[in-house]
Amino acid sequence: MANPTHEQAKLHLQVFEERREPRLRQAREWFFKNYHVTSVDDAMRIAAPGTENGALAMMVISYWEQTCALLNYGLLHEDLFFETTGEFFGVWEFVKATVPQSRQLFKSNTYLSHLEKAAQRFEAWSEKRSPGHVAAMREFMSKMRTQSAKAA
Prior knowledge:
Blueprint: H1 6-18, H2 22-34, H3 40-47, H4 52-72, H5 78-84, H6 87-95, H7 99-106, H8 113-129, H9 133-151
Helix pairs in contact: 2-4, 4-6, 4-8
């Protein structure tokens, strides 16, 4: 892949600067500590729409869906993006169990499709460069969930 253009690099920095916004930082911290779901029922119990937790969850999920849309449309440079973040993949791993049910519930085949497509490409990209990396990340996230559950 060609080197990032100046425009891609500038947008990349803007996207990542948004992550420093205090409310989004709070939402990201809450999400990874608390959003451990395996069904839409779990998601509604933990982060129902109209609640503070629901707002935090949607802030994180929608941020990464939008960022991955920029990536999928070629506005962000894929190698640069994949080399400098894995958080979007972690978000995907946390939500993916609920996506098929959510797509049915919302009658939307495209619900979180940008996040899903980017995660699939990241997994293939990562395995090519660092075999076993994705499995290690999944194991780490599983331990995180277990520790969070014990602490709760």
